[in-house]
Amino acid sequence: MTPTRPLVALLSIVALAMGVAAWWATRESGFSIGPRPDRNLLLITIDTLRADALSSYGGAASTPRLDALAARGARFTFAHSHAVVTLPSHASLLTGTYPYRHGVRDNNGYRLRGDPPTLAARLKQAGFATGAFVGGFPLDQRFGLNAGFDAYDDRISEAAGSVDFALPERRADAVVASALEWSGAQSAKWFAWVHVFDPHAPYAAPDTFAARYPGNPYAAEVAWTDHALAPLLDRVAGMPRPTLVIVTSDHGESLGEHGELTHGLFAYESTLRVPLIVAEIGGGTRPARGVTIDSSVRHVDVVPTVLDALGLPPDASLPGTSLRDLVGRGGGDDRPSYFEAMTATLSRGWAPLRGVIVGRDKYIDLPLPELYSLERDPQEQQNVVTAGRARAEVLLNTLRAFNVAPPALPGEETSAVRDRLRALGYVGGSPAAPRDRYGEADDPKRLIEIDTLLHRAGDRYQNGRFKEAAAMFQDVIARRPDTADAYRYLAFVYWQTGQRGRAIETLEAALKQGVSHRDVRVKLGIYLAESGNAPRAIALLDGLAGDDIEALNALGIAYGQANRTADARATFQRALDVDATNALAWQNIGTVELRAGNRERAGDALGRAIALDNRLAGAHTALGVLLMESGKPAEAVEAWKRAVAADPHELDALYNLAVTLAEAGRRDEARAYAERYIALAPPEIFGRDIARLRSLLGSR
Ligand SMILES: [Zn+2]
């Protein structure tokens, strides 16, 4: 017997125990969302990101940064939005309520009001600094999502063109740079919402990413977006205070599935299901072991989860519930989810689409109802509504527990508006929707060809094939004469190609057909104002403009033309009350003041317009006129050159440059601008100006 043996044994036991302890110490614990008031919140919404697009969800795009969040946090594999277009879906996400509660049913014509409060309003009240950085026009502050945000950066130039076919957007790296600057300047805890728009059509990723995904431009956009978010995630990971990060999308993208090219018409899983990742980074938090949750969860659960995670009291009036328990247990009860797609109802008079998901079953309430078992049929290829009648009945009753009243139309006609339309010679029927009953012919499944035709016509327009685009819109109108947006698009094509009379006739024809949708009336008012028909424009827009920025700007222009300067000022001010950063309203104020001879006020307003949006060609043009009138021709020429650089189609600036340079004897320069003007200006409207430039230059 040797005395050393027990000691050796003892040592080895100690070593073993220490090893176990060390193992326990280094073993990652599972991710959990404990209540913790002193943390930041970073909400990242990636527009149009399909649930299966990230590589952690099996997608084709390489998305290492977002996958890393999923690996240390909670990744939800069966999460759903409640709407399939940007503004209504974000309104649900940020208020924690369904669309029928917050009232925003489409991207156009609606504005989020103060009730229900947004997440930003709740967190601001709880002492958080709040900042939003958005990348797409549908989330412009004019639509009301800015409520509760200290900073709302929606600097997206609208100068590039109309929102009719391509929504103005700002690239993800620019959005991220702005969020970096703001978050770096905060000392208190903060809530930042970062919205990036890049995966939205058109799919045009930077070249290096596009080259990596030949034949899959959508995946290229997704990979690029992941890359663009990296600097923000790196910065936040290095901050002393931990940050709860939530990543999701507002809706997916069909990419041709079920015959749908993009999103907004149907609510199949390709557009309704969204990714959802919750993780914590920064503040020295060690990476946790990621958890994957297959239970069904919803966007309305996000606000309650945030309140829970930040140690704030729950709000029993909200329909969702915190995901904390689900994350802690790795799963739990499925939550029924309501969804809708109202765009085609509101703009085309097609049947409204609503539905519910209960467990793995999905019911879509349409004239031709649909039932899918997503467990057996995740692609939704087999409508089992007939065989599964009993189950469909249960789901229909679940749907009825939500609010299925028809959506309130934006800008519904008052009798005064109707009378005015009649006085103008427009019959002014009732708006396209909603009706009491819809037949099978109104089911969007039966109308997918028309949707495709509208998309293809839009593509033709963007590729400069205007005649083909116009013919396709006419075809849609012939097939379905109540398609309000076909008239609007057709008129837009005419307008952009200089056929102003036909543009106005097209919208007048729609009104006479009884298609008196608000967008049609507003657009007609805008075109009348811009073609100098102030009395008719005022008659149409007065009382209709509401808080529609475009309509208010057009109405103000019409007042200006009618020399009603005070009304014009007040109307542009109304536009600024809706959206204080609307550069166009400042440009219009500048123009009205310039016409009224108030140079100082004009200069101030134009300066503000340019500070807000340096690419606003009209503001540079007006500033040039102001400088010219102030006896500064050299500076005027520089201003007009900036106008033409911002928009090569800025006719007023081209004309002014040609005349001013010719009179200064700079004939070669003048000729170049004159030739551009002559090539671009529609002779039916600008015939006299074209003739003047021709004689000025002695050309024939
Ligand atoms: Zn969207």
The geometry reads as globular
Number of helices in the DSSP assignment: 29
Small-molecule binders: zinc ion
- Specify the CATH homologous superfamily of the domain at 40-331: Alkaline Phosphatase, subunit A
Mean pLDDT: 90
Please indicate the percent range of residues in DSSP E strands (runs of 2 or more): 5-15%
User: So what's the CATH class of the domain at 40-331?
Assistant: Alpha Beta
User: Strand pairing plus helix content: what structural class?
Assistant: alpha/beta
CATH topology of the domain at 40-331: Alkaline Phosphatase, subunit A
C-alpha-based Rg, rounded: 29 Å
The tally of strands reads 13
Terminal CA distance reads 122 Å
Just name the CATH architecture of the domain at 40-331: 3-Layer(aba) Sandwich
Tell me about the largest β-sheet: 9 strands, mixed
Poorly predicted runs are 1-16, 18-25, 428-433
Fraction of helical residues = 40-55%
